[in-house]
């Protein structure tokens, strides 16, 4: 975590963590991070809106790695617009997402005020044959509008909702595009949830500390998902523990307790330490580490020229 000031830190009111660095992320349904791009502010020249620019940039980066694959992208109302669906239609990318009411380009759907008077499950849709875009407005607990160039209204699904009038759960009509969106959306939220369970809790005074720890968390999350996809029956906590054990066995060293070192390290020759005369403890001008127990002291041996505690003097010369 980093609580200092930086020009790239953002403020998003209403978020659980309002201040911090923002990253645009493309993730799978289960939270596997495919592509990420740190937001640096208005640093790039763009001809479209920010949401459309971000989706285009992330999909282009993924298509550079997998040029022959077709992709289905699900995004929320910050990114979705008719121009985004039209521009990516030619690049073999299908888009499905919720859209804000002022971004439907005057699509003649029934207005929201009239929609709220309809029964739950009522829907209205329009289809643009030129760009193969389906616009659907559906009345659930609230009125929601979606755009898609991959899914349409048919086949009509059934969704269970609680009815206060009859005091039981009932089934209402649900367009297919809504059902598909509910199934595949939320991959970035799933990624954040996976990371948040066992996040690296390190606070630093350097701005890049939080970015490095976040990248490590994302890497561990991806590795755990990949291990489970190959048949490993292991949860995230045990996976992190296995990583820690492997690193300690390979790079770790035995813990040295203060005052009881495993090995005395000193540049003083053994002949001087054990056989030379004039060993006398005295007070030094500089506080240094003891040559035997490694704790700091101002006492030193006049003959050996190293700092030593009174209790370490005899042991060092034995």
TrEMBL record:
GO molecular function annotation: sequence-specific DNA binding
Annotated ranges, domain PiggyBac transposable element-derived protein: 2-223
The record's Pfam families line, in alphabetical order, gives: DDE_Tnp_1_7 (PF13843)
Origin superkingdom? Eukaryota
Q: What is this protein called?
A: PiggyBac transposable element-derived protein 3-like
Tell me what organism the protein belongs to.
Trichoplusia ni (Cabbage looper)
The root-end lineage is: Eukaryota, Metazoa, Ecdysozoa, Arthropoda, Hexapoda
Q: Name the gene for this chain.
A: LOC113506015
